[in-house]
Design goal:
The complex is a heterodimer of chains A (277) and B (233). Helices cover 56% and strands 11% of the residues of chain A. Chain A has three domains: 94 residues, no CATH class; 29 residues, no CATH class; 129 residues, no CATH class. The termini of chain A are far apart. Chain A has nine helices and six strands; from the N terminus they run H-E-E-H-E-E-E-H-E-H-H-H-H-H-H. In chain B, 35% of the residues lie in helices and 27% in strands. In chain B, the strands form two sheets. A six-stranded mixed sheet of chain B has the order 6-7-8-3-9-10, sandwiched between helices. Chain B has a four-stranded antiparallel sheet with strand order 2-1-4-5. Chain B is globular and about 50 Å long. The relative contact order of chain B is 0.19. Chain B has 233 residues and is of the alpha/beta class. The chains are: A alpha+beta (277), B alpha/beta (233). At the A-B interface, helix 7 of A face helix 3, strand 6 and helix 4 of B.
């Protein structure tokens, strides 16, 4: 049977409201899995005996550590209570004194199982159960991230505008410093379009170099952020990513802004009579 | 005015200014910088234009080079009436036929000596190799063969002025117009610049130099004085 095969393939996670009933008895033969980093830190290994309680005032129950597991690099699990301990569902229900209650459980399918069919079968089999695909759950879970991303995009936009204005001011000042030399070149007959071309090309080159330097800072900052949070959350998740698209966008924006700033500066300069400079 | 009146260049005349005036408006006041000046510059000329400050020497130089146009009168350059030419055409004429030297050199500080000299050649679309060769040759001519890669900040005032002169000579102009070229230089360096001008003139370059420097003026072949906007021999 397909569903049975799917369930056998890995009934991996359960969640039961861990609010202990007043006098929940200890389940027999209680076995758990403990996440490896915590176990290593606490000196626990497979075969160790630990005592667990579902609430501070509940009676502790002896449990055998059946094994250790590697925590998944999953953003949705970053903020969950640590360490994570996995139970057999009946043991967890018994420990919590909430037998027959399950908030959710995760089913991992073999690659050859059709997820939609399995979901339909599960909903039919477990009346009142709603099955969500991993993509759906991830989409719902990342709503906050999308808002944060938009916020970041807004900050980036404002920063770019401010940076563009700053760049234009710098260019105006730099070009102004050369105003007499440029005036001399104009008097010597060097065409305006050539002088403008040189100035704009120089501005574009400087901006591109600035863009490359900025990307270097971005990559370094990203590496620092990742190193810090990976250490804090003991995960391999990447918290900051500089994508190829960002690199291209950054460079293109830098060059366009630089050329614009150079153009503004040069137009201001060329508006003046060279004999008065 | 006809081409004959101004000379076509083949008669040895480079630039002719006839009865030129130049008025500047400062607010409601009209300042008359030139009040009827006459100048003729021929091939091989070395003309010194002297006169007190504010007498109109620089204005006259600007008119001769087509940088500015007279309020009345005419300036013909190689037979062409400058007033009848567009701004772009006059710029092109200056680029090819006029070398300008300024009191404060006006070199681009971020470029080396040779790159500064190459500028007019680059604007004339001379190939990179040829302009490098020509710029090096002209820098050698002004005695700066060992300073090609130096930036203006690494050169003395006299060396900067020689780079500026080399830049003015790079396009092999019909005439070099120099406005107070020794104004920022000490006596010894000024003499070197005068010697360089004389050497260039002997080699056939026509020069017009506006100056307060009597020694420089005395070294020229010819001298005119501008007083109150009028020229007198």
């Amino acid at each position: 049977m397909r569903l049975a095969a799917a369930l056998l393939a890995g009934l991996t996670q359960f969640a039961v409201p861990v609010v202990a009933a007043p006098s929940a008895p200890c389940p027999d033969d209680l076995q758990v899995l403990i996440e490896r980093p915590y176990a290593v830190q606490a000196g626990i290994q497979a075969g160790s005996m630990v005592r667990l309680r579902s609430a501070p005032d509940a009676e502790p129950c002896p449990a055998l550590v059946a094994g250790l597991f590697e925590p998944r690099a999953d953003p949705s699990e970053l903020m969950t209570t640590r360490p994570r301990v996995l139970f057999h569902l009946p043991h967890l229900q018994a420990l919590a004194g909430r037998e027959g209650e399950v908030d959710y459980f995760t089913v991992q399918l073999r690659p050859d199982i059709d997820a939609d069919l399995a979901a339909r079968d599960l909903e039919l089999l477990l009346a009142g159960t709603r099955v969500h695909s991993a993509a759906e759950v991830a989409d719902r879970a990342s709503t906050t991230f999308r808002v944060v991303s938009r916020f970041h995009a807004a900050i980036a936009g404002i920063t770019l505008v401010a940076g563009g204005v700053f760049l234009a001011c710098i260019m105006v000042l730099k070009v102004q410093e050369r105003s007499t030399a440029v005036a001399a070149a104009r008097l010597a007959g060097i065409p305006r379009r050539i002088l403008m071309g040189w100035t704009v090309a120089e501005a574009a080159l400087l901006s591109a170099l600035g863009g490359v330097a900025g990307l270097g800072v971005g990559f370094a900052a990203s590496a620092i952020v990742n190193a810090y949070y990976q250490r804090v959350y003991e995960t391999t998740l990447e918290f900051s990513v500089v994508t190829g698209e960002m690199v291209v966008q950054g460079l293109v924006l830098a060059v366009v802004l630089g050329m614009g700033a150079g153009l503004v500066a040069t137009v201001r300069l060329f508006a003046a009579d060279p004999l008065e400079l | 005015m006809s081409g004959e009146a101004g000379g076509r260049g083949d008669d040895g005349i480079i630039v002719v200014a006839r009865d030129v005036t130049r008025d500047y408006r400062q607010g409601r006041t009209v300042v008359r910088a030139l009040r009827g000046a006459d100048v003729t510059v021929a091939k091989g000329d070395f003309l010194a234009v002297t006169g007190p400050s504010g007498s109109g020497k620089s204005t006259l130089l600007h008119l001769l080079g087509g940088v500015d146009l007279p309020t009345s009168g005419s300036v013909h350059f190689l037979g062409r009436n400058l007033a009848a030419m567009s701004v772009e055409a006059r710029a092109a004429l200056r680029l090819r036929q006029v070398g300008l030297v300024f009191q404060r050199f006006h070199l681009l500080p971020m470029l080396t000596a040779i790159e500064n000299v190459e500028l007019p050649l680059a604007a004339m679309r001379v190939s990179r190799r040829e302009r490098r060769e020509r710029a090096a040759a002209v820098l050698e001519r002004v005695g700066l063969a060992d300073r090609l890669r130096h930036r203006p900040g690494e050169l003395s005032g006299g060396q900067c002025q020689r780079v500026a002169i080399a830049r003015a000579l790079a396009n092999d102009p019909a005439v070099v117009l120099a406005d107070e070229p020794t104004g920022e230089l000490d006596r010894t360096t000024s003499r070197r610049v005068l010697a360089l001008f004389q050497e260039l003139n002997t080699a056939g370059t026509a020069l017009v130099v506006a100056t307060h420097d009597l020694e420089l003026a005395a070294g020229a072949r010819r001298r005119i004085e501008v007083v109150d906007g009028r020229t007198r021999p």
